[in-house]
Amino acid sequence: ALNSRDALDFNGTSNILALASWPAISAATAFIVCRPNVSPQTDNVLLWRFGTCSDSSYFAYTGGSHGEIYDGFGTNDRRTALAPYDLDQQNNIFETVISASTCANWLQGAILMPSAACTVAWNPTPFIGGVNTGQPLNFAGKIVEIVIYGTALSDQNRSLIRNYLATKWGATVI
In this predicted model, what pLDDT tens digit does every residue of 14-27 receive, in sequence order? Predict the structure, then answer.
């Protein structure tokens, strides 16, 4: 449990959630509320693999003062930003928007990776919390909520959802 609510607790080695299929949609907005177990780590902790990029989306603790965040949600490319704080110190709300004209990311409501053009490319059988390749990339920590919309939401709608998730999970938004 996290915040007295149910949570998926990933052990960092063998727990993953595999989805049987995923539609080839042209745009999406996703939110994930998570709390990694420990920071810094020596390896990457994969949040999800919805894109076709081999690295996909994860928190990495191998570089920067607090590590790095990579995101390739729904794309064949990966974008990188330095984490602004130690991610295990609080419940994190990570959000991403992808469409043919934009790919952007936020952490706690603050822009993390500004909008850029990207190619929408979905993994037809995505994973949450890791990959099934035998590599030590699986997420260690709690994932408490994932919300995905099949459209690029407006800033106003994303703000409403982010504030709802922050209240529900006791996260701080900026």
Answer: 788 888 888 889 99
